[in-house]
Design brief:
heterodimer; A: about 150 residues; alpha+beta; Ubiquitin Conjugating Enzyme; 4-stranded antiparallel β-sheet; B: about 220 residues; mainly alpha; about 55% helix; elongated; nucleotide-binding (chain A); UBQ-conjugating_AS (chain A); UBQ-conjugating_enzyme/RWD (chain A)
């Protein structure tokens, strides 16, 4: 296992994620790769994703923390900033990454993105268009997808 | 010391007066040695009625202003030694019962001294004339003690040596090594910030543009 040359920071972050998890977020490292995390985020209350349990995968590249973690939704989700492959459009995962950010802050940002979809900076053109033309309808679709794909199974 | 004594009476406002006048008095007594005029002025203003205000626990204290409380304090400067028997038992019990501050015996003793001084002053106003260095020290000590409860906490914990804080680098999350500051004032390990600048050219904390040239080696202070 590669954990012997795992940076101290990753060990520290992992310990803290396990001992003091953020509300509505769980992240645990894979047994065979300490840089690969299985993540679950609960849909925030008063969002179309409320009641859903969303699985994600998070990977810390070799350059981490100088490079951002790679994060992707595994659970299907109807969101203007998340595409059908689960890729996330979030600035701190791209050009706004900073080595002072952490796994925890990234996951909190993703949780916040679920509460505040941003159709003006879309990843899924169709969903964004839907959101902008009839938000109520788009929200209904998002709720339905949550029931269908994220109902905790 | 009146401070603790009055605390028993829950006269917190008066305590503030006392505390400030104590400091004034210390200054006044010291300046007396240099210029007698200042002290003479004070002594002339001692109104007997106001001394009564400090008589004992049963008397309701009225805020009299700085001068009023200053005067009795001036008077009692020296008489610490012989009256302890007179008011010890009651004052001791009272202090013990009513005040959390009095857990330390040393402080209670000083209290008693001061209380007896106050009692005695009503009878022997003449005694005020010679300032005594011992009492000034006593007052200074008490002022420090009474002025903040957190200080009291420190006194209680004093046996354990205080722990030096450890500051961690936001990048490696370990203790800072050869800490350096960006021009925006954010501090990192030397190697961490250099790696971050190579990767991004921005401050990891505030994202301002920074260069390695502008980094300043800083030395964090210790608590001692």
């Amino acid at each position: 296992m590669a954990s012997s040359n795992l940076p101290r920071r990753i060990i520290k972050e992992t310990q803290r994620l396990l001992s003091e998890p953020a509300p509505g977020i769980s992240a645990s490292p894979s047994e065979d790769n300490m840089r690969y995390f299985n993540v679950m985020i609960l849909g925030p209350t008063q969002s179309p994703y409320e009641g859903g349990v969303f699985k994600l995968e998070l990977f810390l590249p070799e350059e981490y923390p100088m490079a951002a973690p790679k994060v992707r939704f595994l659970t299907k989700i109807y969101h203007p900033n998340i595409d059908k492959l689960g890729r996330i459009c979030l600035d701190i995962l791209k050009d706004k990454w900073s080595p002072a950010l952490q796994i925890r802050t990234v996951l909190l940002s993703i949780q916040a993105l679920l509460s505040a979809p941003n159709p003006d900076d879309p990843l899924s053109e169709n969903i964004a268009k839907h959101w902008k033309t009839s938000e109520a309808e788009a929200v209904e679709t998002a709720k339905e997808w949550t029931r269908l794909y994220a109902s905790g199974a | 010391m009146p401070f603790v004594f009055f605390k028993c009476l829950k006269l917190d406002k008066e305590i503030l007066y006392i505390m400030s006048t104590r400091a004034l008095r210390g200054a006044a007594v010291r300046s007396y040695r240099r210029r007698k005029t200042a002290l003479d002025l004070d002594l002339n203003q001692a109104p007997p009625g106001e001394i009564r205000e400090l008589e004992g626990p049963s008397t309701q204290l009225e805020p009299q202003g700085v001068q009023a409380i200053l005067q009795p304090a001036m008077i009692d400067v020296e008489a610490i030694d012989d009256d302890v028997v007179e008011s010890t038992p009651r004052a001791f019990a009272e202090a013990k019962n009513n005040s959390r501050r009095n857990r330390s015996r040393a402080i209670v003793d000083v209290d008693l001294e001061d209380q007896t001084r106050v009692a005695k002053n009503n009878r022997n106003k003449r005694r005020r004339d010679y300032p005594s260095q011992t009492i000034i020290n006593c007052d200074l000590y008490i002022n420090l003690e009474g002025s903040s409860s957190s200080m009291k906490e420190n006194v209680r914990k004093s046996p354990e040596p205080p722990e030096e804080p450890v500051f961690n680098c936001p990048i490696c999350m370990g203790p800072l090594v050869e800490e350096m500051s960006t021009r925006c004032g954010h501090i990192f390990c030397k190697s961490c910030i250099k790696a971050a600048i190579n990767a991004q050219g921005k401050c990891p904390t505030c994202r301002k543009r920074v260069t390695a040239k502008e980094l300043i080696r800083v030395f964090l202070p210790s608590t001692s």
